[in-house]
Design goal:
It is a single chain. Helix 6 crosses helix 7 and helix 8 runs antiparallel to helix 9. The protein is globular and about 70 Å long. The strands form three sheets. Strands 1, 2, 3, 4, 5, 6 and 7 form a seven-stranded mixed beta sheet that branches. Strands 8-9 form a two-stranded antiparallel ribbon. It has a two-stranded antiparallel ribbon with strand order 10-11. The termini are close together. With about 325 residues, it is α+β, with helices and mostly antiparallel strands. It contains ten helices and eleven strands.
Length: about 325
């Protein structure tokens, strides 16, 4: 008979981005081939790697159908020889120009956007790195094509190290639940925040919160001598732990105290992942986490599976299935 874990399993199947998405893989390979064939003879040699949620296996299907994949390009250059990092990004843009209607140098990457019927279909982001530096560290090229000089710079980065620490935090079935919980939090974000600007927490900030605060949760059945995972409990505990990370801070702009949160990337550059959110935006994030915590409390207090699922669908949207468990005799539901 269906259980709440059944509903979470079905939910996860509905939202997860397959690790080997054929379309994205195909477009990535086409672009890498085009880059190799068309890149300027003046450009340095480079190697490639996958990065981001695709590489960490924590991606979810976008609600606007704009799928994305992140690719790292490690150029065999010393950043000291390229004071303007946008020049290096220009190698990539020039090689890919004309492949689609939109190839754009953005602050942290070069984006190739595919469209269908004038709407976004999927895109590939190429992050550009200097890999042969005196300190043996990797630096990402920051800045847009027409940015002021002070907005063009090299920033230390360790994307492969980040993939490693997140991917290796847990193993086996614990790692599978860890990735499921991250996906639930990303789906909650999409359903509860505007996608514009810095008003919502980023995917990597939610991933890092889970990296720091998640604990696997399972239930042991002494009769069968087996354990089964409990995603609701794991999610419930994570949200409670996230709520505890906030502290009050005075906001001079609004002349009021706001809830603020600091969470640092676990690899270089170890930056605060919420630094781009204003205090008011962080306060809104806190309010939504508190509301989520209260909703999960309410779910816990319901008696029937359908009631629990209905409340969870309010948190996550229509992808969360509303199941009911009925006894064999009569029509009474049980949780």
């Amino acid at each position: 008979m269906p259980t709440l874990q059944t509903a979470f399993t079905d939910f996860h199947e509905a939202i997860k981005l397959d690790d080997e998405n054929e379309t994205l893989r195909e477009k990535r390979e086409i672009l890498l081939k085009k880059l190799k064939e068309n890149i300027s003879e003046d450009a340095a040699s480079y190697t490639t790697f996958n990065q981001g949620s695709y590489a960490m296996h924590t991606g979810i299907k976008p609600e606007d159908s704009d799928y994305d994949i992140d690719v790292g390009l490690k150029f065999d250059i010393n950043k000291a020889d390229y004071e303007d990092p946008v020049k290096v990004k220009q190698w990539v843009k020039d090689a890919l120009e004309g492949h689609t209607k939109s190839v754009e140098i953005r602050r942290s990457c070069v984006t190739v956007q595919y469209q269908q019927n004038e709407g976004p279909l999927y895109h590939v982001d190429f992050a550009v790195y200097a890999a042969n530096n005196d300190d043996l560290k990797l630096y990402i090229a920051k800045g847009k094509e027409f940015s002021d000089n002070d907005q063009k710079y090299w920033e230390v980065s360790d994307p492969q190290g980040l993939i490693g620490v997140v991917s290796n935090k847990y193993s086996g079935k614990d790692a599978e639940q860890f990735r499921r919980i991250i996906r639930y939090m990303k789906k909650w974000k999409i359903h509860n925040f505007s996608s514009s600007g810095n008003s919502a927490p980023t995917g990597i900030s939610l991933t890092t919160l889970a990296y720091n605060l998640f604990s696997p949760s399972s239930v042991y059945d002494s009769f069968t001598n087996t354990s089964s995972y409990n995603d609701f409990k794991a999610l419930r505990n994570l949200v409670t732990n996230i709520k505890s990370q906030f502290s009050l801070k005075f906001d001079s702009e609004s002349n009021a105290f706001c809830y603020s949160i600091i969470t640092n990337l676990p690899t270089e550059p170890y930056n605060n992942l919420f630094e781009k959110m204003s205090l008011k935006q962080q306060d809104t994030f806190h309010s939504k986490i508190v509301a989520m915590d209260e909703k999960l409390d309410e779910v816990e207090g319901k008696d029937t599976l359908s009631e629990k699922c209905t409340l969870l669908a309010e948190l996550f949207g229509d992808d969360f299935p509303v199941l009911s468990e009925r006894s064999i005799v009569g029509s009474t539901e049980s949780a």
